[in-house]
Design the sequence.
């Protein structure tokens, strides 16, 4: 059988199984294969949106959120989804959210859900740059890129796999889903990463939409230059926002070329930048990590809002999220989170009774004046058997779960570390730790013409140095700043 015939047979099979559907592409107007129908994309987005909120948390600033939505809606109205020749079913409402994360990141989910982080907003200099970023994300939705990737995976007979991102290195996807509870539409969509052609298409339409909305879209190139500088400063791989994107230097030049092209084609003025207005919107935004939501210092993790502390073992990396704290090493993971139960014993019983779990030992505990209950279980997983210890603790009217797990072969190596960490959970009483406050973005008018470095304060947030502050302001450290220029400085 030749290749064309084989592809035809595969297509017939996939259509019969409901794995792909043929629908119109809003950008080109042509029909093509997708992994989901347009209606399914909207449902996927709604389900994953709630998981995004749980994982990252929303930034608590209604005025800033409303502002981002206004800019997003302005760009959306110029998109292919809202044009006169676009079918009515494509004119879906969009949701624009600001996530409470210091990471410079923006992304979109199918069905009209677009996200920017407070970390990204603090690195933008004006509304025009925000419009280009949001236009890029609207482009992903309009281009149906997630659904296209799903269809491509179906063609390759790969299929979608559930499971936790954090758990897959040590556990099979099934075990990770069972233990961490993270098998979800979000995990599925996370496997459908955009290709570079998708990113280039979104860059193109993002500039087009911003230009049509009246913005000076070439401003977007300065932001992509900042992303390049972040990469160089970190000495690591490309930041999250660029992980599947073309080279940032290439994008910086491409944005300039696209902006010139669309400004020549679009009637009317495209000169809106709005720097001062934008800066006033982000004034006061939290810079870097917010210690009120938990922070690591001197080998311990402190949570001022919830009032607890526990040690961080040597060799473990801390990943702090709104709904959980993950401590990970090369061969073991600990997860601290909320338990949905009325008592520690009830939570332990529910945990141990899950399918595929075999209870090894359990019993009550008393630690630092707190009642608890622990359970040790063996878990059958696709990539090898797992042993886990889960300590449930009653504190301040809440039951907390403190889980440590590793392969059965490695568990003995980490058992003492697990036990010592789990049983060192204690109330936080040190007022210095409790009253810690985040650094916030302040606006300062340069009172003289001088180098940017001369305006850098002596004390900066732990995760922001002088060079990173220069990147936030989209200037070089030794660049001359004219008197009267508004600068972003921590306060």
Sequence:
């Amino acid at each position: 059988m030749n290749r064309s015939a084989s592809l035809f047979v595969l297509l017939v099979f996939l259509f019969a199984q409901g794995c792909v559907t043929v629908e119109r592409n809003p950008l080109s107007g042509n029909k093509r294969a997708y992994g989901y129908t347009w209606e399914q994309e909207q449902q996927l987005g709604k389900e994953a949106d709630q998981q995004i909120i749980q994982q990252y948390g929303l930034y608590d600033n209604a005025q800033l959120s409303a502002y981002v939505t206004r800019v997003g809606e302005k760009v959306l109205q110029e998109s292919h989804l809202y044009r006169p020749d676009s079918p009515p079913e494509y004119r879906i409402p969009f949701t624009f959210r600001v996530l409470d994360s210091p990471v410079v990141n923006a992304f979109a989910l199918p069905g009209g859900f677009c996200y920017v982080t407070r970390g990204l907003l603090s690195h933008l200099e004006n509304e025009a740059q925000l419009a280009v970023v949001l236009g890029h994300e609207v482009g992903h939705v309009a281009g149906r890129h997630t659904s296209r990737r799903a269809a491509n995976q179906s063609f390759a007979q790969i299929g979608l796999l559930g499971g936790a991102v954090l758990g897959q290195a040590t556990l099979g996807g099934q075990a990770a889903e069972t233990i961490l509870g993270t098998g979800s539409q979000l995990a599925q969509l996370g496997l459908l990463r955009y290709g570079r052609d998708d990113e280039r298409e979104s860059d193109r339409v993002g500039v087009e939409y911003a230009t049509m909305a009246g913005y000076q879209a070439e401003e977007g190139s300065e932001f992509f230059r900042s992303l390049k500088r972040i990469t160089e400063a970190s000495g690591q791989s490309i930041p999250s926002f660029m992980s599947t994107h073309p080279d940032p230097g290439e994008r910086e030049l491409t944005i300039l070329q696209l902006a010139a092209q669309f400004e020549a084609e679009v009637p009317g003025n495209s000169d809106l930048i709005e720097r001062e207005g934008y800066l006033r919107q982000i004034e006061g935004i939290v810079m870097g990590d917010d210690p009120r939501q938990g922070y690591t210092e001197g080998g311990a993790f402190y949570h001022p809002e919830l009032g607890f502390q526990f040690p961080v073992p040597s060799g473990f990396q801390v990943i702090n999220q709104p709904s959980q704290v993950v401590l990970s090493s090369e061969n073991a993971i600990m997860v601290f989170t909320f338990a949905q139960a009325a008592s520690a014993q009830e939570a332990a019983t529910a945990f141990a009774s899950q399918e595929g779990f075999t209870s090894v030992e359990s019993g009550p505990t008393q630690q630092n004046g707190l009642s608890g209950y622990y359970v040790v279980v063996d878990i059958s997983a696709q990539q090898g058997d797992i042993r886990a210890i889960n300590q449930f603790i009653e504190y301040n009217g809440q039951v907390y779960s403190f889980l440590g797990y590793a392969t059965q072969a490695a568990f003995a190596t980490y058992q003492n570390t697990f036990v010592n960490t789990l049983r060192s959970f204690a109330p936080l009483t040190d007022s210095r730790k409790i009253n810690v406050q985040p650094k916030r973005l302040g606006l300062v008018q340069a009172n003289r013409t001088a180098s940017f470095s001369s305006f850098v304060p002596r004390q900066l947030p732990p995760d922001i140095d002088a060079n990173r502050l220069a990147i936030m302001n989209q200037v070089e450290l030794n660049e001359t700043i004219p008197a009267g220029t508004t600068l972003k400085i921590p306060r």
Remarks:
- The longest helix spans residues 38-56.
